[in-house]
Amino acid sequence: MRTVGVLALQGAFVEHIAALRKLGAETREIRLPEQLEGLDALVIPGGESTTIGKLLVTFNLLKELKNLARRGVPMFGTCAGMIVLARDTTQGYDQPLIGAMDIVVQRNGFGRQVDSFELDLPIPKLGEAPFRAIFIRAPYIEKLGEQVEAIAQLPDGRVVCARQENLLVSAFHPELTEDLRLHEYFLSMVPEH
Length: 193
Description:
Elements: E1 3-7, H1 13-22, E2 26-30, E3 41-44, H2 49-58, H3 62-70, E4 75-78, H4 80-85, E5 86-89, E6 101-106, E7 117-121, E8 131-135, E9 140-144, E10 149-153, E11 159-164, E12 167-170, H5 181-188
């Protein structure tokens, strides 16, 4: 059975855990470096990216997460988690990033909290039925590196879901829906040990 850690410093980690358990994954809340031992994959949930970055430093997790990414452990970052996994942000915020994925992210790409929205998003890798995507103070991907595949785009072309080898990111919150297909897609990236 695959063991998926969910970074539990802030944000919707409980909802990610529930989704992963429904799909049969064993889960573990991650708050300290020693809890990373033996993980098959890691989810970095949404929340507030600056706060998450600071907490990664405070709890000595940043270096360990960079090492996990380098070793090829699958990681899934949603909303703020996408920012934390990115190489950089367009605004050049001085915040700690794992920096594993070759993307540049526009933070708060759609405006403030009141500008949050939902839409039915085509994600061909998940099948014909659209995915109900929930965007809350969401980022989007401004630049994709050569090895990064855009998995979903808005009608205006902005990339909101992408994959690079063992890394998956979404600007929206799949954990806040009953649709488990994106979590299932992530689990398909996790080799059975």
